Amino acid sequence: MTKLITTIDEMKNITKALHDQHRSIGFIPTMGALHDGHLKMMSLSAKENDVTIISIFVNPLQFGPHEDLDSYPRDIKSDTLKADSVGVDYIFHPTEKEMYPELPTIEVKAGRLASVLEGAERPGHFDGVVTVVNKLFNIVRPSTAYFGKKDAQQLAIVKKMVEDFNHSVEIKGVDIVREADGLAKSSRNIYLTDDERLEAVHLYKSLCLAQSLYVQGERNSAKIIAATHAYLEQYTSGTIETVAIYSYPELIEQHVIDGSIFISLAVKFSKARLIDNIIIEA
Fold it and tell me: Which EC number(s) does UniProt give (predicted)?
């Protein structure tokens, strides 16, 4: 039975006891509204570790002033049932006051990796991510932490943070889980209207088009981006905010593709901003 933990002290006492018993800890940080993408990571953790812990915390530091912090979906009862169904042992579910008794005095900055793509569109977002992930790693002290590849930039930043700050945790990226029609599963998909939901499938289809051009030998980023952008304009009514090709995980913009890349896009619908990507290994 999954146990709900709400205080830092209790969570730290539990993880200290687990470390004393030399038990491995798998950890998945989330903001709740759990979907199949989250559950895939939890199932994997349950298979690979002695104990699986998730956090459910809607982190205010990673939301901008006009983003959906207040309306972000929250349903701890449903999330607990879902987590229990895939073998999660503990849910760390602190209040905002518990995590941030006061605004942090010492700031953690994500740096250059956060200056592009989502970081450029959402200033301060990744600073909030690395701040909360640092706190969670220090509280839970996991052996392995799992992050979805849908947020590929976040995954790259967290891996670099772990390297730079010498955290004793292995970071595993988990493949995107998609609906049957290809739409990447996301907590924000519930904000789509019926018509937008039908259009949203074309985000993935546009990425498949971009990948097919790459497979056919195209290495000029501008041509791949133009074709992807044109496809999205034709098949969606959303505002196309980003179509970009960057090296991965270095996150350096590619004009002539060389090495591993990820093709990233972001489209803003009426109440939902959706992101998606495809990572292509060298």
Answer: 6.3.2.1
Burial category of 238 from C-beta neighbours within 10 Å (exposed 0-12, middle 13-18, buried 19 and up):
buried
Q: State yes or no: pLDDT of 261 exceeds 90.
A: yes
186 is in an annotated binding site: yes
Binding site annotation covers 153? no
Two tokens, residue 109:
């900055």
Domain membership of residue 180 (yes or no) is: no
Domain boundary pick from 174, 203, 222: 174
> Does 19 participate in catalysis according to the annotation?
no
166 shares its domain with 27: yes
Q: Whole domain around residue 197: which residue ranges?
A: 191-280
Q: Is 185 a known ligand-binding residue?
A: yes
Instruction: Exactly one of 19, 22, 38, 202 is catalytic; name it.
Output: 38
Q: How many domains does one find in the chain? A: 2
Tell whether omega for the bond before 249 is within 30 degrees of 0, i.e. cis: yes
Q: Write out pLDDT tens, residues 151-166.
A: 999 999 999 999 999 9
